[in-house]
Amino acid sequence: MTDLYQSQRAMRHMRRAAMQRGVIAILDVGTSKIACLILRFDGPERLREADGFGPMAGQSGFRVIGAHATRSRGVRFGEIAVMNETERAIRTAVQAAQKMANVRVDHVIACFSGGEPRSYGLAGEWELQDQVVTEQDVARALAACDVPQIGEGREVLHAQPVNFALDHRSGMGDPRGQIGNRLACDLHLLSVEGSVVQNLLYCIKRCDLELAGIASSAYVSGISSLVEDEQELGAACIDLGGGSTGISIFIKKHMIYADAVRMGGDHVTSDISKGLQVPLQVAERIKTRHGGVHATGMDDREMIEIGSDSGDWEKDRRTVSRTELIGIMRPRVEEILEEARTRLDAAGFDHLQSQQIVLTGGASQIPGLDMLATRILGQRVRLGRPLRVQGLPLATSGAAFAGAVGLCLFAAHPQDEWWDFDIPSERYPARSLKRAIKWFRDNW
After folding, report:
1. Residue 111 falls within a domain, yes or no?
2. Angstrom distance (rounded) from CA 102 to CA 122
3. How many domains does the chain fold into?
4. Residue 232 lies in a domain
5. Distance between CA 399 and CA 66 in Å, rounded?
6. Does residue 345 form part of some domain?
7. Would 310 be classed as within a structural domain?
8. Range of the domain at 435
9. Among 85, 318, 412, 414, whose Cα sits 20 to 30 Å from the Cα of 215?
10. pLDDT at 431 exceeding the cut of 80
11. How far is the C-alpha of 195 from the C-alpha of 300, rounded, in Å?
């Protein structure tokens, strides 16, 4: 824990230094694509940190000056599986983005979707010495949080204060400077497999880049895809990626739960490949051009030419009806959505007042998905596109880039985390744990 605390602090300092120099790269390391965006921070705004706890999706202060996405290699389930292939793909994306921006970058902020994220809701409190809440009092309240045994080989990726209460006043964003006797704090902690983080760190280092920050894809996709009201009143973001599907829940502008399903759009492609006995590239083309999950009478008559090039003339000239294709795709998409529903139920999502669910990510673009999702996930489902950010090329503004765009916002306006405070080194023993949302409901 202490090692990560120190390395996260070091990354925060590096991020500030990079912003002072004016440019930083954003790297979304996904299973199907690796995207790199280069941000330029402007003028005196450059280092103006937003006030208070947890500023969200602010637009000021940066623009995208370079962007490139390349087919991912060596990544499975959002985790690096073949180091040198991933290194090559990252180098390709970063070099092309640098060329477009006409600058060289040394620092990157990265996000990834693997590592089997787990959420915890923690609480801590602190008796104030002289009634006015200081930065040190906030650090003491955070230090009093009952940090759980997160398991051998796991590391803390995010540790964000999501609520403060001063005496009987709860729901405070920033208690500093306010008067009271007892300061209580709720903290959301997200842990991931340590080896997944270490592999990513090592891969980025091999590309001659310095890591200035790291984030969960589920978190940054939520930042860019949920509108202000949804972040405030409570909503879930389901990020349907290539190799995994990220789930995050926000309320009061904070993420309070995250999880991931180890399935995504690539699994649908694989099913088509097996079902139609065609190579993966052909299956991917058929999926994007003709795919869907909702068959009508018309689809029996719509014939799709497979157009493979195996050399077997008969086999390559085959056609299938769109109904058959939908019959292959639908069960897998249903399975992914059912699994996401199970995770939301386990988190207690149905206890939130707002039941809004936003679907984003590359695989959310399958035609008819919103209708299917409404049946499985509930009435309030919409397709989300990431917020527009200045200078973003049209090609990188679709749902597939929700993570990359969210990471830009995270880089410009990071939420306060545990490591932004000088936490006293003495710790309190771990106490009982509650699931994140149930804890949130009880405490607010």
Report:
1. no
2. 45
3. 2
4. no
5. 19
6. no
7. yes
8. 118-193+420-443
9. 85
10. no
11. 48
Rounded CA gap, 402 and 175, in Å? 32
* C-alpha span between 162 and 103 (Å, rounded): 37
pLDDT, one tens digit per residue, over 8-32 is: 878 888 888 888 888 999 999 999 9
Q: What is the pLDDT of residue 6?
A: 74
Select from 313, 328, 343 the last residue of a domain.
328
Q: Does this model's pTM top 0.85?
A: yes
Q: Please state, in angstroms and rounded to a whole number, the distance separating the CA atoms of residues 97 and 50.
A: 28
* CATH code at position 165: 3.30.1490
Q: Kindly report, residue by residue over 175-189, the tens digit of the pLDDT.
A: 888 998 999 999 999
Q: Which of 328, 348, 371 is the last residue of a domain?
A: 328
pLDDT, tens only, 50-69: 333 333 444 457 899 999 99
Above 50 in pLDDT, residue 331?
Answer: yes
Ramachandran sector of residue 153 (left: φ over 0; alpha: ψ -120 to 50; beta: rest): left
DSSP per-residue letters across 314-381: HHHT-EEEHHHHHHHHHHHHHHHHHHHHHHHHHHTGGGSS--EEEEESGGGGSTTHHHHHHHHH-S-E
Bridge pairing between strands 33-41 and 23-29? antiparallel
Other CB atoms within a 10 A radius of the CB of residue 182 amount to 13
